[in-house]
Amino acid sequence: MNAEKRIILDVDTGIDDALAILFAVKSRKLKVEGITTGYGNCDVHQVTENTLRVLELAQPRYDIPVVMGSDNPLFRKRREFSAVIHGHNGLGGYELSGTNRTALEEKAADFIVDRINKNPDQITLVFTGRLTNLAIALAKDPTLPSKVERLILMGGALHVPGNITPVSEANIHGDPEAAYRVFHSGIPITMVGLDVTGKTKFGEKHFEQLMNALTSEQNELKAFLNHIFTFSFEASDSLNEGKYRLMHDPLAVGVAEDHTLVTCEDYYIQIETKGALSSGATLTDLRHPQTQINASVCLSVKDELFLQHYINTIVS
Ligand SMILES: [Ca+2]
């Protein structure tokens, strides 16, 4: 009996996403059916190239198709990319080795529609970027929500501030109209937002542990991880926040692997699309009793357990 959970991972690679891809590919509990890409940390062409190169570095034990998706939000102008946070190429400026791997000719939204229809109730979607590709897939096939096992998304903030505006988290803020469509689609949602990802601080001790555990055969992986964690520590330190990296995207994959890492509460979440100050906010009805719900929101996390599991998975 195969107990692996089958996932489609949607990314905007990105340091954070690279760390999530490495984790998903190495996980013995997950089978990555495909990786779809979208704009976010950089444009979709750079994101796709980064994703292919991260896969080359990871050397998956099975074939994983990469499928390019949207390069713009549904209706809005794309926000400019932050080279300070992500480097010019989204990977802190690190140049990964080239690869012969190429993306499929298919579009990401078509891939999602096709794979879910061929495998009803069997595929979990894990989104660590904007929700644009999924919103397009929903427009193409409104029956998807009843066929998706679950959507686990990194995004949103309930009891904590946003990270791109005082109230908005970057992935939701990057395409609020797409998020609105997804949250109101009826797909079962687990929201892995800043309430929990903000607690996953991968610090210098974790870094030391990771570096020491990697073997000499893993030199390329070691050099990449060394660069991106050092880059991340310098970035957080320059903001007087101390040296750590928040493991936003890897935690979403972690929750796909093991839901007991987090505890959740069910809420009805609306996405603000009109607000001059609050665009992209995950506006949550905290009144009781709840008359309707559309998302299970992660509110606490076994952060150290997760970080240790992350390290052990990466070095395996
Ligand atoms: Ca991401």
List keywords for this structure.
alpha/beta; eight-stranded mixed beta sheet; 38% helix; binds calcium ion
Task: Detail the topology: elements first, then pairings.
Elements: E1 5-11, H1 15-26, E2 30-37, H2 44-58, E3 66-68, H3 83-86, H4 108-118, E4 123-127, H5 132-140, E5 150-154, H6 170-174, H7 176-183, E6 189-192, H8 194-197, E7 201-203, H9 204-213, H10 219-238, E8 244-246, H11 248-257, E9 262-267, E10 269-271, E11 282-284, E12 295-301, H12 303-315
Parallel strand pairs: 1-2, 1-4, 2-3, 4-5, 5-6, 6-12
Antiparallel strand pairs: 7-8, 9-12, 10-11
This protein binds calcium ion (CA).
Calcium ion is lined by residues 12, 14, 16-17, 40, 128-129, 249.
- Work out the helix count: 12
Bound small molecules, by name, code or SMILES, are: calcium ion
What would the principal axes of the Cα set say about the shape?
A: globular
Rg: 18 Å
Description:
The chain is an alpha/beta fold and 316 residues long. The protein is built from 12 helices and 12 strands. The protein has helices at 15-26, 44-58, 83-86, 108-118, 132-140, 170-174, 176-183, 194-197, 204-213, 219-238, 248-257, 303-315; strands at residues 5-11, 30-37, 66-68, 123-127, 150-154, 189-192, 201-203, 244-246, 262-267, 269-271, 282-284, 295-301. The strands form 3 sheets. Strands 3-2-1-4-5-6-12-9 form an 8-stranded mixed sheet, with helices on both faces. A two-stranded antiparallel sheet has the order 7-8. Strand 4, helix 5 and strand 5 form a beta-alpha-beta unit. The longest helix is centred in the last third of the chain and has 20 residues, at 219-238. It is globular and about 55 Å long. The two termini are 23 Å apart.
